[in-house]
Specification:
Layout (H helix, E strand, L loop, with lengths): L2 E6 L5 H15 L4 E6 L1 H14 L2 H4 L2 E5 L17 H28 L4 E5 L2 H10 L3 E5 L3 H5 L5 H11 L4 E4 L15 E4 L9 H9 L5 E5 L10 E2 L6 E5 L4 E2 L3 E4 L6 H7 L2 E5 L2 H10 L3 E4 L5 H12 L3 E4 L7 H9 L12 H10 L4
Parallel strand pairs: 1-2, 1-4, 2-3, 4-5, 5-6, 6-7, 8-10, 8-13, 9-11, 10-12, 13-14, 14-15
Helix pairs in contact: 1-2, 1-13, 4-5, 8-9
């Protein structure tokens, strides 16, 4: 039985969510023993999802370790704008601790006889695998290097680049940053599609049965809290929002962050308004839903995601001020005429690649 470890970013919940179906595939279809390393709240989220998706025997083959794994982006309160001063300090501290952290993790990898690793962002896991001589598969749609290069000191993004340069195997998600290829020159690259937790048709039908009007799902994630309230009580739609979205009215329902099946609300909705997080976008594409995405021109990943989807006529871009005119946003989404045929859930594809991974 192969022993696989997932090192996952704890920046938001998108990374852990998109890896849950890959973990399921590794355990169910490949009889693997899996370790998952991510943030504490993210681990709890994964446990609750995986317990519902796996048999008791399958779930027992998964071990979890909670720890802070990644810096990501730090935003200014109430905005989607990056706080470069705080992010610079956080990344500086992270890089200073990295060599020791990687050395300790390399020992853990050897002690636990790990056969292969999936890395979704955490930089120190790349170095740990290099030291332990454990094959690593990097799976993602960007690296922090091309993002940080736009607003952090050269010493930071070049340090990140040096670690990404050690990656030998990569699977690129759809909608990935073309710029990331610059930092993966020595990696064998395989392109794939998108992945997200599967939809529960009964749950989707139950959500839809509670509404006679079209449903609009508005999601902003946990990294920003828009504060100015927007009254939508006279808009002819019913709304679901994540916490922190400032819509108010009797036709607005708030989905707590503790909700496990947010993907079913995506599938039940007629229209999606969201920040351009890859995980939410993947759910929308697999559910075949029109999307309006908040522009964040300061972040390359967001610009890339929005540009590629606009080119495919699958999304429109909006600003925070546009939220005051929900009708206008929805009218734009009604004009979208793209096709979704190129997108599929690639979880099995990634798990199979991971299982076949061998050391140099």
């Amino acid at each position: 039985m192969k022993r696989i470890c997932f090192y996952l970013s704890d920046h938001g919940f998108g990374h852990i969510a998109r890896n849950i179906p890959i973990i399921v595939s590794a355990v169910r279809n490949n009889d693997a023993c899996v370790y998952v390393v991510c943030g504490e709240r993210h681990i709890e989220f994964a446990k609750q999802n995986l317990e519902m998706m796996l048999t008791a025997e399958e779930y027992q083959r998964i071990s979890f370790r909670s720890e802070h794994t990644d810096i990501g982006l730090i935003c200014k309160p109430g905005t989607l704008l990056v706080d470069t001063e705080k992010l610079t300090q956080a990344c500086t501290d992270y890089l200073e601790e990295l060599p020791q952290r990687a050395a300790q993790e390399a020992e853990w990898l050897k002690e636990n006889k790990i056969d292969a690793v999936l890395c979704d962002m955490p930089l120190w896991s790349i170095e740990a695998c290099e030291l332990a001589k454990v094959p690593l598969l990097y799976v993602g749609n960007f690296t922090w290097t091309e993002l940080y290069r736009e607003f952090l000191p050269e010493t930071i993004w070049k340090a990140y680049a040096s670690y990404y340069g050690k990656i030998r195997h990569t699977m690129l998600y759809a909608l990935h940053n073309p710029e990331m290829l610059e930092f993966l020159k020595d990696s064998q690259i395989t392109k794939t599609s998108v992945t997200a937790r599967s939809f529960n048709e009964n749950a989707v039908a139950e959500i839809r049965s509670q509404h006679k009007r079209p449903i609009v799902f508005v999601a902003l994630g946990m990294s920003a809290q828009f504060k100015e309230p927007v009254d939508v009580c006279n808009v002819p739609y019913d709304f679901y929002t994540t916490e922190g979205v400032p819509l108010v009215g009797k036709n607005v329902g708030v989905i707590p962050y503790s909700t496990l099946n947010t993907q079913d609300y995506v599938a039940a909705s007629d229209y999606l308004i969201s920040k351009a997080g890859w995980g939410t976008v993947a759910e929308c594409l697999l559910a075949r839903k029109p999307i309006a995405l908040f522009r964040r021109d300061s972040v390359l990943e967001d610009r890339t995601t929005i540009r590629l989807l606009e080119e495919k006529h699958l999304a429109v871009s909006i600003t925070q001020d546009d939220l005051k005119n929900i009708d206008g946003i929805i009218e734009k989404m009604k004009m979208l005429d793209g096709t979704y045929t190129e997108f599929y859930n690639c979880a099995d594809e990634i798990a199979d690649k991971l299982m076949l991974l061998k050391g140099e």
